[in-house]
Amino acid sequence: MPKAVFPNRLLPYLLLSPQIAVTLVFFYWPAVQALWQSMLREDPFGLKTTFVGLQNFSNVLADPAWLNAAWTTVVFSVSTSVLSMGTALLLATAAEKVLTGKAFYRTLLIWPYAVAPAVAGLLWLFMFNPAMGTFAYMLRDAGLAWDPLLDGDQAMGLVVVAAAWKQISYNFLFFVAALQSIPRSLLEAAAIDGARSGKRFRTIVFPLIAPTSFFLLVVNTVYAFFDTFGIIDAVTAGGPARATETLVYKVYTDGFVNLDLGSSAAQSVILMAIVIALTAVQFRYVERRVHYG
Amino acid sequence: MIERDAAGRALAHLVLIVGVLIVAFPIWYTFVASTQSVETILRPPLPLVPGGEFAENYGNAIFGGMSRIGGVGVGTLLFNSTVMALGIALGKIVISLLSAFAIVFFRFPFRMACFWMIFITLMLPVEVRIMPTYKVMVDLGLIDTYAGLILPLVASATATLLFRQFFMTIPAELVEAARIDGAGPLRFLRDILLPLSKTNIAALFVILFIYGWTQYLWPLLVTNDNRMNTIVIALKKMVSFADADTPWDMVMVTAILAIAPPVLIVVLMQRWFVRGLVESEK
């Protein structure tokens, strides 16, 4: 940190004021409201509000629909992260191997990053919807009863593929950066000692990219939890029969569609706790990574 | 390379080609669909090469209003998305740059408290404070306004952290020299810090523009009027499988137009994009 600083007293507050104002009005005030609302209950006509303490939380945690959404979220996040990171790692390793066309491949692999999640969902829905999707038509021709608008597992498969597709670019770029930072001399030494490429990957490359993989796992989990609202809303709207209703989607439907404010607020607070935990993990890891070099 | 492994390299090319095909296919499929008539789209399988309706479909979409979304033309939608994305990107950059400048180059009471206040917003994504934030917007009368689309998303812990990190690498001698030469803080900001931050700003701009363009939940809540829709929201509203007269050709054109601007920015500003992505996450 520079030791020479400017002596002004008022100016720094002026410089900070726009950002602080925005965070107070649009972040802290609503967050406090959410906390407060989560301990209230309104009667069905919105006439009387009573303080119920932690009642909303115990109701939410005992609600089978919420537990179902929690399980759906876990299945969705794990499948999306594994599928997307696996594909990206395979592509990044291949991109490290080729001598020509690296930039060309990279350009063609990064654009899904710029596609909005909701639009990504729709693109896959165009190909796989039973009414006009070419692939739905081919699957049905092959004798499969394909209808993601009716079958929960197929709906889940479709949103997972769309969500993972969008995230491949991001994971690919980070894996490429991690692979490039591995010292050539290590790999050469191992090759001279007779380690084949499979063994080199297992014993050198994989341990060295483990920190990046862990970082990506956290980022992908956050993405699957929060940024995929658009995909789910556009492709399945949480259906069929709640098979793809994630926690964030449930906060939205309970708040804006069912108008159950207390429960929706309690769910928001639980989500907030999850984000705080994930962010803490992410930052602890960033500090550790410094030592890895 | 360690081994002269032609077979391995050929395999790597194969993997990459298959990967590129998978990654690019959904966009190609939609592009092909956007150049066909509704009848062709509704009769799968879809051909793999573009049809002859390119000029007609895109012309209709751009110059004729779309009845499905209240007669609002694609131009209005693109304009709304652009305003929102630019507003968010530039807004975040300006207020984060000023905050980081204050935190690094001044000493004042509650300095670290301010820093932590900004930092903690990382843990409060829109999704966890949907209802109360919506209520704030209603109270402030910001529903269906550009300010309502932009302001709540404009605070940025990530950008502030990035600028702070960068400012901390600036040698103290540079600040001292500027002060000896009689430069005040604002002059130092304008003539020294800004030029040095140019690449960081470009990198952040790409990432933040895409962030703004691809927003979904927030514009969905804060706009009721069709004329205030972003193109992503309008596209979602147009798609209906239950409805027999969904204009699928127009849907496909809108999808391509919703994808094109951010994709072009990523591809054309690739160098800054990669830099911004890798650095803003550190």
Automatic annotation (TrEMBL), chain A:
InterPro entries documented for this protein = MetI-like, MetI-like_sf, UgpAE/MalFG_permease
Signal sequence annotation: none
The ABC transmembrane type-1 domain covers 70-282
* Membrane-spanning residues: 12-31, 69-91, 103-127, 155-179, 204-226, 265-286
What positions belong to coiled-coil segments?
none
Q: Which UniProt keywords apply?
A: Cell inner membrane, Cell membrane, Membrane, Transmembrane, Transmembrane helix, Transport
- Protein localization: Cell inner membrane; Cell membrane
Q: What is its main location?
A: membrane
Q: How does it sit in the membrane?
A: Multi-pass membrane protein
Q: What GO CC annotations are associated with the protein?
A: plasma membrane
Q: Name one Pfam family in it.
A: BPD_transp_1
The record, for NCBIfam families, names: PRK10561.1
Q: How does it assemble?
A: The complex is composed of two ATP-binding proteins (UgpC), two transmembrane proteins (UgpA and UgpE) and a solute-binding protein (UgpB).
Its job? Part of the ABC transporter complex UgpBAEC involved in sn-glycerol-3-phosphate (G3P) import. Probably responsible for the translocation of the substrate across the membrane.
Q: Which family does it belong to?
A: Belongs to the binding-protein-dependent transport system permease family.
Indicate what this protein is called per its UniProt record: sn-glycerol-3-phosphate transport system permease protein UgpA
Origin species, per record, is: Methylobrevis pamukkalensis
From TrEMBL, chain B:
Where found in the cell? Cell inner membrane; Cell membrane
The family database entries (SUPFAM superfamilies) matched by this protein are listed as: MetI-like
Q: Where is the ABC transmembrane type-1 domain?
A: 78-269
Q: Which InterPro entries match?
A: MetI-like, MetI-like_sf
Q: Which CDD domains match?
A: TM_PBP2 (cd06261)
According to its UniProt entry, the function of this protein is described as: Part of the ABC transporter complex UgpBAEC involved in sn-glycerol-3-phosphate (G3P) import. Probably responsible for the translocation of the substrate across the membrane.
Which family is annotated?
Belongs to the binding-protein-dependent transport system permease family.
- Name this polypeptide is given: sn-glycerol-3-phosphate transport system permease protein UgpE
Name the gene for this chain.
Answer: lacG
